[in-house]
Amino acid sequence: EGELAAARAAAAPAGAADGGPPPPDHAVAAAWLAPAEAASAAVRVLAARLAPHEARIRRSYFHVKPLDGDQLAGWWALLDEGEGGGSGPPLDPAALDRLYRRCLVATAAYPDFWRRRSRALEAAGDVAGARAAAAAAADTFCKFRPEAWLFAARADEAAGDVDAARSRLTRLRDSVAPGLAQAAVAVAHLERRAGD
Question: Sign of torsion, CA 91 92 93 96?
């Protein structure tokens, strides 16, 4: 029984039994917890702001079956909200990047979302990232959609790589969408702007 009493005394908080300093008071605990509670409140506000748009999205994974119009509108509205076009301030860049990546999983087959991602990266000053997003749309996810190829060629030209833009447009005109008048016109305009 003496060992049990010694163990209890060792486990007791300091100062409780021997008259030492008292345990921390509630003011110290409140000051320590205040930043965590503020962060938790900010997350709750953000979740409430995004919840109406999240409710419209039923499929957050990729599938070859097309998304219905309401889900596409939900993803678009969710991106609007994340960029600050809705009821609150824009998300921080890292959170906005995560939101775009999450969105592009489900909407990978839609060039409009890739174009929006590319433009958002370009507006943030990431020209290489914007060009990579446009190239991913044309080369991998939307490779049979002429609008993705046209946009990727414009991104290449905007980055100063006229040869890559020419190659992309020529491939679009000759193999991806032969006979597409818009591709032939885009090649002609590129050559005119390049001075060739």
Answer: negative
61, 45, 42, 106: which is closest to 79 by C-alpha? Answer: 106
0.85 surpassed by pTM: no
Q: Which residues contact 191 (CB under 8 A, 6 or more apart)?
A: 166
The amino acid at 88: G
Phi and psi dihedrals of 178, rounded to 5? -65, 140
**pLDDT for 47-97, tens place per residue?**
898 899 999 998 888 888 899 999 999 999 999 999 988 777 888 899 999
DSSP string, 145-180: -HHHHHHHHHHHHHTT-HHHHHHHHHHIIIIISTT-
Higher pLDDT: 101 or 20? It is: 101
- CA dihedral angle for residue 176, residue 179, residue 185, residue 190, rounded to 10 degrees: 30
DSSP state of 139: I
